[in-house]
């Protein structure tokens, strides 16, 4: 079975489980899904909002997927996103430049901020073999508390203690032609950052020597080393780039979808990125598609909540259940294989063997 | 200085206990060979079930003392059941244990709020009263130690400390403990010796679930009093404590107390003149940075179970 079928099955089961959940809690699943999808896609404005909601997810998903290709589990996308967004916000609030230059500088600052935040776990992994899951979690909380104190200290908002000053309009990713095209949606240039990042990463992973080396390290660290690939350098570089992409998610979120940075919360998109990457089978295009799908769920849930009594957290529940099914897709695969064997046991056992070979190729 | 220490010590202990019991549970899981990154989610489930059961029963029976104990038991049982999802994925299906654990965290975080909103509307569940702090009779009169350890303590603190001793005994002094550890070190040798590796791993994960559920419920019934849909990332901190404590019961005690004490100091620093001169951000990030440094120092001599995180494949040699 190939990856997209697995992902689709996981989505199907997740949606079924969501329907069951709605039914058990006394709601009408058909209505729920109707309003959920309408809320995400009914009008050009809602479609625009869905694309905007999906943008940070594309980028965090890409970040997790990229690191995963090198065999690294970047659970720290949330912290990298927060710190990248913080750096971009700091630049936007304190530098006075022509708009194009300022935005470029902010994007750069976001990338570097996120990248530096992931560089530390990368170095610790490469040099001291410290597991990146734990170190990136520590980095998450370090980012959380750093931002928690630095924002009120230096960039305090006019009215609220818990968020930064509003970014001036020229330091935000909004573009009036884009909003007009989607009839007043808050979609912004961040979406293009996401698309470009997907294309660049796809090129990097599939068409360059660097991408080949990173993937080789991910498949088997030892054989990569034996083949003369600088494993440690690859690990550090992979984390650096992954962190940078997560930092871009921070730019898209805090200077695009929102206009200020809130303190006291780790962005949930960081963790959702893991789900996006997993469902997208760690392939750039897959990440894009699954982020858009999650975008529909997240952006439609408010409308659904307004039209029915169903709590908006149903969207999060569905996503979480999808991820569990994606993680356990081997069960479906086993059942599928058993069924296949039973179906073709007597007459063509040779075809069966062929099937096994093809599957092997698919998996690779 | 001494009086401040006396004042913050009970708080530090209260904050340590949920971390300790959760990390202790994770010790069983990892010693049996299964990484459990879903601790945070399991704690949330415990906190949710605890709040649900206790709030319903308090409405029925008022403030009877046994209601809280029923809540603790229910929380442990619910989280143990919930952890079966992780056990099934990582033991039977050889799924990536970190991804499965992440799914556990996500499901717990989303599902509990979804259910809580269906119950209360706001998504928060309050309990009318939790455990009350008390002074240990006689022992609290001992100078120094009495003030630090035996005043303003909770009964759950002592329960968890007893569980710590029992766990250490079970892991190191009983055949069961030896077998469990063997499954995490060298599962094939364990299997050759007639141990059912998969069953042992199930037990390890379920103990982890039950203890994490207790941890979540203890937070609810000592210092928070309310289910809010998260446990402030304490599950991840418990996982870090497990590693910081080098997969040993008393190492974990030390590591969790370090986190508890450091967090409490950071929380109260503004009202203590000696500490108020230090920028609070330094105090807040201190425990995390120290953990990173500790991980580097321990990296050469890690005591991690050898087979932790590896799916057990009986046919592989």
Your description of this structure?
Chain A has 364 residues and is an all-alpha fold. Chain A has 16 helices and no strands. Mean pLDDT of chain A is 89; it is low at 353-364. Chain A is globular and about 75 Å long. Chain B has 317 residues and is mainly alpha-helical. Chain B has helices at residues 2-31, 39-61, 66-92, 97-120, 145-149, 155-173, 175-185, 187-192, 197-224, 234-244, 249-268, 273-276, 280-298; strands at 125-126, 226-227. Chain B has a two-stranded antiparallel sheet. Chain B is globular, with a radius of gyration of 20 Å. At the A-B interface, helix 5, helix 6, helix 12 and helix 14 of A face helix 3, helix 4, helix 10 and helix 13 of B. Chain A: The chain crosses the membrane at residues 47-68, 75-95, 101-120, 186-205, 235-255, 276-298, 318-336.
Low-confidence stretches of chain A: 353-364
How confident overall, as mean pLDDT of chain A? 89
Characterize the main sheet of chain B.
2 strands, antiparallel
Contiguous uncertain segments of 5+ residues of chain B: none
Name of the top-level CATH class of the domain at 45-291 in chain A: Mainly Alpha
Greatest interface: A-B, 44 and 44 residues
Coarse structural class of chain A: mainly alpha
Query: Mean pLDDT score of chain B, rounded?
Result: 90
Major sheet of chain A: none
Work out the radius of gyration of chain B: 20 Å
Count of helical segments of chain A?
16
Q: Whole-number radius of gyration of chain A?
A: 22 Å
The name CATH uses for the topology of the domain at 45-291 in chain A is: ABC transporter involved in vitamin B12 uptake, BtuC
Distance between the termini of chain B: 59 Å
Which secondary-structure class do the elements of chain B indicate? mainly alpha
Helix content of chain A: over 70%
What's the architecture of the domain at 45-291 in chain A, going by CATH?
Orthogonal Bundle
How much of the polypeptide of chain A forms β-strand, as a percent range?
A: under 5%
Work out the helicity level of chain B.
over 70%
Keywords (chain B): Cell membrane, Membrane, Sugar transport, Transmembrane, Transmembrane helix, Transport
Membrane topology (chain B): Multi-pass membrane protein
Protein name (chain B): Simple sugar transport system permease protein
Subcellular location (chain B): Cell membrane
């Amino acid at each position: 079975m190939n990856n997209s079928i697995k992902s689709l099955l996981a989505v199907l089961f997740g949606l079924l489980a969501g329907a069951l959940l709605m039914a058990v809690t006394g709601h009408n699943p058909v209505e729920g899904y109707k309003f959920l999808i309408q809320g995400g896609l009914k009008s050009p404005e809602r479609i625009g909002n869905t694309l905007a909601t999906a943008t940070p997810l594309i980028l965090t998903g890409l970040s997790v997927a990229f690191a995963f290709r090198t065999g690294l589990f970047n659970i720290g996308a949330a912290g990298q996103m927060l710190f990248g967004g913080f750096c971009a916000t700091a630049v936007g609030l304190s530098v006075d430049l022509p708009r194009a230059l300022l935005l470029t500088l902010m994007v750069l600052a976001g990338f570097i901020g996120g990248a530096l935040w992931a560089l530390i776990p990368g170095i610790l992994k490469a040099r001291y073999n410290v597991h990146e899951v734990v170190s990136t979690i520590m980095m998450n909380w370090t980012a959380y508390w750093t931002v928690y104190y630095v924002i009120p200290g230096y960039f305090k908002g006019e009215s609220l203690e818990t968020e930064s000053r509003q970014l001036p309009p020229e330091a935000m990713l909004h573009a009036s032609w884009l909003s007009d095209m989607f009839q007043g949606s808050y979609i912004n240039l961040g979406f293009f950052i996401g698309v470009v990042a997907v294309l660049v990463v796809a090129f990097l992973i599939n068409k360059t020597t660097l991408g080949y080396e990173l993937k080789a390290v991910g498949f088997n660290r030892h054989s990569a080393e034996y083949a003369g690939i600088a494993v440690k350098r690859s690990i550090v570089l992979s984390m650096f780039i992954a962190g940078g992409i997560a930092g871009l998610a921070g730019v898209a979120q805090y200077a695009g979808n929102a206009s200020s940075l809130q303190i006291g919360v780790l962005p949930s998109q960081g963790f959702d990125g893991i789900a996006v990457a997993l469902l997208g089978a760690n392939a750039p295009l897959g990440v894009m598609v699954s982020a858009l799908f999650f975008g529909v769920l997240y952006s439609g849930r408010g409308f659904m909540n307004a039209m029915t009594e169903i709590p908006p957290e149903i969207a999060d529940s569905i996503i979480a259940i999808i991820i569990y099914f994606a993680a356990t897709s081997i069960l479906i695969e086993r059942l599928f294989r058993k069924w296949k064997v039973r179906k073709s046991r007597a007459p063509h056992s040779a075809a069966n063997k062929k099937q096994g070979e093809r599957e092997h190729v698919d998996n690779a | 200085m001494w009086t401040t220490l006396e004042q913050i010590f009970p708080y530090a202990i209260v904050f340590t206990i949920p971390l300790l019991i959760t990390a202790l549970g994770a010790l069983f899981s990892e010693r049996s060979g299964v990484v459990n990154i879903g601790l945070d989610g399991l704690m949330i489930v415990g906190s949710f079930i605890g709040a649900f059961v206790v709030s319903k029963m308090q409405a029925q029976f008022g403030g009877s003392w046994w209601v809280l104990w029923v809540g603790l038991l229910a929380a442990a049982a619910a989280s143990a059941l919930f952890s079966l999802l992780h056990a099934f994925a990582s033991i039977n299906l050889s799924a990536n244990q970190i991804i499965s654990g992440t799914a556990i965290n996500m499901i717990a975080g989303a599902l509990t709020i979804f259910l809580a909103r269906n119950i209360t509307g706001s998504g928060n569940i309050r309990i009318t009263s939790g455990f009350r702090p008390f002074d240990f009779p006689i022992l609290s009169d001992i100078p120094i130690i009495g003030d630090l350890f035996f005043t303003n303590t909770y009964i759950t603190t002592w329960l968890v400390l007893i569980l710590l001793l029992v766990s250490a005994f079970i892991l190191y002094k009983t055949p069961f403990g030896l077998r469990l550890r063997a499954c995490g070190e060298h599962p094939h040798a364990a299997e050759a010796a007639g141990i059912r590796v998969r069953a042992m791993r199930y037990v390890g994960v379920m103990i982890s679930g039950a203890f994490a559920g207790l941890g979540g419920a203890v937070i609810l019934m000592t210092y928070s009093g309310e289910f809010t849909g998260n446990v402030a990332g304490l599950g991840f901190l418990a996982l870090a404590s497990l590693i910081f404590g080098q997969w040993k019961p008393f190492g974990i005690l030390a590591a969790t107390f370090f986190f508890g004490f450091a967090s409490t100091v950071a929380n109260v620093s503004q009202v203590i003149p000696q500490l108020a001169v230090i920028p609070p951000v330094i105090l807040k990030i201190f425990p995390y940075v120290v953990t990173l440094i500790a991980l580097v120092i321990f990296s050469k001599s890690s005591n991690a179970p050898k087979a932790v995180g590896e799916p057990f494949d009986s046919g592989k040699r």
